[in-house]
Every structure is written in structure tokens, then in C-alpha cells.
Amino acid sequence: MAIGEGDRAPDFQMLDESGKIWRLSELQGRRVILFFYPIDDTPGCTIEVCDFRDAHQELADEGYIVLGVSPQSAASKQAFIKKYSLNFPLLIDEGAEVAKAYGVFKEKGAFKGVPVIIDRSTFIIDGDGLIERAMLGVKAPGHVDSLKALV
């Protein structure tokens, strides 16, 4: 079951594409946009991450840290970041453990042989670690614009 607004965000520890460890508990006092996407460098995921890239400065000016999460490897994320000049970290959710904690693990089939196990979802987490917004099962086109209207 997904967590909802007002719930405490599950803490996590994940590596980003460069090997840096990210822990939600170490971001206390900061506002976080944590978005889960299914697969690096696929059509819908590319739309979504590029929209976050384009909105990154605006979101940062509002005080948000943007973190993208999917289960693919560091090499996959490095290539994705380089190909699209992404300007925020992509975290590696090995075994989809964090997706499970947030309730967005869903076995949805496969895309070109890669299992699709993440329901595209975004969580806005306040500085106290509480979920301000839980946007579950979102569609990539227009998602970031909808999100910006909320922050």
C-alpha cells in the first residue's frame, strides 16, 4: 500500500549515479521532491526527467531538492544523465526496496525485455520528513507542470 499525505516518509539510503550515498534523514530541514520512474532512457521516462531538468532551477528556487529513483544501475544512470544533460541526481533503488517502502512497486510487465516494476509516482516531502503530497500513478506528459502548480 502506498503511503499518503501526512504520513512520515520512509527513510532511505541509496547511491546516486556517481556513488554518493543519499539518506532522507540527512536532508532534515530540506524539502524534497522524490520521484519514482520505471526505466532509464525510455520514452515516458525521458519526457519526465527532461521536464524535471527544465524545471530544476524553478524548483530549487522554491527550496526543493529533486531526486529521481529507479532500479537500474549506476552505468545506466550515468548514460541517461549524459545523454539528456540532467541536472539532478538519479538514485539507484537496488531490488526496488525503496519503491516497496513507498508503495509504488508494481509488476507491470516488460519494456523491451526489461521488467517494469515501478508505478510512476512523486512524493513531496517537507522539512520534517512528512509527505505533503503523494501523486501516484502519474502520466509523464504534463506531470511536472501539475507539480509546479502545487509547490
Task: Summarize the structure in words.
By secondary structure, the chain is an alpha+beta fold. It has a single domain, classed as Glutaredoxin (3-Layer(aba) Sandwich). Helix content is 28%, strand content 25%. It is globular, with a radius of gyration of 14 Å. The mean pLDDT is 92.
Describe the secondary-structure layout:
Blueprint: E1 13-16, E2 21-23, E3 31-36, H1 43-61, E4 64-70, H2 74-84, E5 90-92, H3 97-101, E6 110-111, E7 114-115, E8 121-125, E9 131-135, H4 143-150
Parallel strand pairs: 3-4, 4-5
Antiparallel strand pairs: 1-2, 1-5, 3-8, 6-7, 8-9
What's the level 1 CATH class?
Alpha Beta
Largest beta-sheet details: 7 strands, mixed
User: From the 3D coordinates, which CATH architecture would you assign?
Assistant: 3-Layer(aba) Sandwich
Globular, elongated, flat, extended or rod-shaped: what is the shape? globular
Mean pLDDT: 92
How much helical structure, as a percent, in the residues?
A: 25-40%
Summarize this structure briefly.
By secondary structure, the protein is an alpha+beta fold. It is built from four helices and nine strands, in the order βββαβαβαββββα.
